[in-house]
Every structure is written in C-alpha cells, then in structure tokens.
Design goal:
Number of helices: 7
Order of helices and strands: HHHHEEEEHEEHEEH
Structural class: alpha+beta
Largest sheet: 5 strands, antiparallel
Number of strands: 8
CATH architecture of the largest domain: Orthogonal Bundle
Radius of gyration: 35 Å
Length: 268
C-alpha cells in the first residue's frame, strides 16, 4: 500500500475543504448576521405591536393575529435573505415546496376563509357579544365571537354556531345598535268607537309598563275595515338595553286589554 499517495490525496482534499471554508466564511458570517438581526427585528416588532394594540384598543384576536403575522413574516424574510447569501437556490426550493403548498391550500381553504372573515368582522365590529342580531337566517343573542365562528343563543334557548364566512357574506340586522326596538299589537275595535279615544286609552295603559319608551310616543293607526270592526295597530318602542321585548309586549297586551274593558271598549 502506497501510504505516500494516500497521504498526499488526503492533504489535497483537506486543503480544498479549507479553501472552500475560507472562501465561504465571509458569506456565512454575513448571512448569520442577517439572520440574527432579522430575529431581533421580529422580536422588537412583536413588542412594539403589543404596545400599539393596547393604545388602539384592538380586540385580542386581532391583536394576536396581526402581531404573529408581522413576527413570522420578518422571520421568513430574514431566512430567505440568509439562505440567499449562503448561495442556496431559494427560488428553486420554494418552487419545489409550492406544489405541496397548493394541495394543502385547497384542503384548508374553508378554514382560511372563515379565519380571514373572522379578522374582518373583528375589525369592522358590526356586532358585539350581548347584541341581539339576525344573520345568516338565524336570530338570537351573540354569546361568543372567535376567528372561526360566531355563536348565538336563539329565543328558544338553542345554541347556533355560524362560520364567520357565512356571517360576513350575509346581511346583518343588529337590533341592539340603537337600544330601542319597535313592537306592535294588532287589535280589532268596534267601528262606532272613536279611534282618537281608543288611542288615548291605549297610550294611557302603556304609561305604566316598564320598558315602554316614552319617546317616541306610542301611536295607533287604522289598517283595515272588516264588517263592523276596525283593525288597528298599536305601535310603541321598547328599551331593549334593559328589557326583553317579548316580555314587554306581553305585559303591554294585558294592560291594553284590561284598559279597554274598563272603558267599555270591545277589542278582539
């Protein structure tokens, strides 16, 4: 065995490796420095973002999303720059990963759609927890809002969970925005009885009902004549911030019926 030749080959190989290491050293140091600076920048952005979110009073879910997004974007950009400085073909690498990413993207499309819709709902805030709304064919009180779905409780006590994408695409009716909702009671009175007097009796009956707003004033309108009966609609406003509209309407109906009997007004 020619040990001299073997040693010479190893020496040449070591010299070649050492030359490559020396040549790569500046790029390695610069790339590493870029990576470290990028990591520090991401941490700083996350800390500054939290402070900004507190000042702007962002919803917790939105705060977490935007801060995490900024943090990871800075990390990814730093990683790409570091690999590029080290001579890695980043474009070829990302192209290879793109096919797998496309497949995953289709698989989680609905999840991402609900997630993005949840962020937009948090930013626009068309309703909040505790509001009574009608959305996506459902009606009830909002009990929870997450980045994936909105949960509400119907008047029947049923919990309904609606994906945020459906909420965002549908028409939203918020009955709690202004604090008052209009209620009505349909009645039939004798045509011979003066409508103005009936209106005064009904308004007086509503004055003692808790939850019935004094402004705007309750009012009575005639809607249809049926034989010797006159169909009327008693309209009034309910303070839904403190009272349940169903309960107030029920109390109002009893009070109006009782007042009509006391004043000789036949109602049906």
């Amino acid at each position: 065995m020619d040990w001299t030749s073997i040693w010479g080959g190893l020496t040449e190989r070591l010299q070649s490796i050492l030359t490559d290491v020396v040549a790569f050293a500046p790029a390695f140091i610069i790339g590493l420095a870029v990576g470290v600076l990028g990591f520090l920048a991401a941490r700083t952005a996350r800390q500054r973002g939290r402070a900004l979110a507190r000042r702007l009073d962002w919803p917790p879910q939105v705060e977490q999303l935007l801060i995490s997004l900024a943090y990871y974007v800075l990390l990814v950009v730093s990683l790409i720059l570091m690999l590029s400085i080290w001579g890695v073909d980043v474009i070829g690498l990302t192209a290879g990963l793109g096919i797998g990413g496309l497949v995953i993207g289709f698989a989680v499309r609905d999840l991402l759609e609900n997630f993005i819709a949840g962020v937009l709902l948090q930013l626009q805030a068309p309703f909040k927890v505790g509001d009574y709304v009608q959305v996506a064919g459902q009606e009830g009180m909002v009990t929870d809002i997450t980045l994936r779905a909105t949960t509400m409780r119907t008047p029947e006590g049923v919990q309904v969970i609606i994906p945020n994408a459906s909420v965002f695409k549908s028409t939203i009716s918020n009955y709690s925005t202004y604090g008052f909702r209009r209620a009505e009671i349909e009645l039939q009175i004798d045509r011979s009885f003066q409508v103005e007097r009936a209106a005064a009796i009904f308004r007086s009956a509503l004055e003692g009902i808790e939850g019935v707003a004094s402004e705007p004033h309750p009012y009575l309108i005639a809607s249809e004549v049926s034989g010797n009966r006159l169909k009327v609609r008693l309209l009034f406003w309910v303070d839904t911030r403190t009272h349940d509209i169903v309960e107030v309407r029920s109390n109002a109906l009893r009070a109006v019926t009782r007042a009509a009997e006391e004043n000789g007004l036949d109602v049906a």
